Amino acid sequence: MNRRIAWLVFSVSLVGTALMLAQAKTPPKPIYTPDAEYTLAARRDRVQGIAVVRLRLDTDGVPHDVKVIRSLRSDLDEKAVEAVSKWRFDPATQDGKPIAVSINVEVNFRLYSK
After folding, report:
1. Closest CA to 24 of 32, 13, 8
2. What's 48's domain CATH number?
3. In whole angstroms, what is the distance from residue 65 CA to residue 59 CA?
4. 42 by DSSP, 3-state: which?
5. In a domain? residue 16
6. Single pTM value for the model
7. What is the rounded CA–CA span in Å between residue 85 and residue 42?
8. Cβ(91)–Cβ(98) under 8 Å?
9. What are 34-65's pLDDT values in tens digits?
């Protein structure tokens, strides 16, 4: 039986103003990261690659304004946004207090045979 799954790769790349980057003493840490799902069409077409999404992370650790900034394929882009929207983080901090930041997340879609 072949099992094909999508793997997510979290890229801790903070984006935004230099001031925002200077303020973040501790970057956000992912604490709940459900996997993105392959669509049947993408699996059939054996599509593999990376979609990159940008999100705003408020002090609550919940992603907001999740948008694709590097597309892989529209159906997989949707799955990447859907999955990352469910992620939860320990927020970035400055002086021990949570702060809002924007980050990029790489969602790596790979087919593996089992």
Report:
1. 13
2. 3.30.2420.10
3. 14
4. helix
5. yes
6. 0.78
7. 21
8. yes
9. 999 999 999 999 999 999 999 999 999 999 99
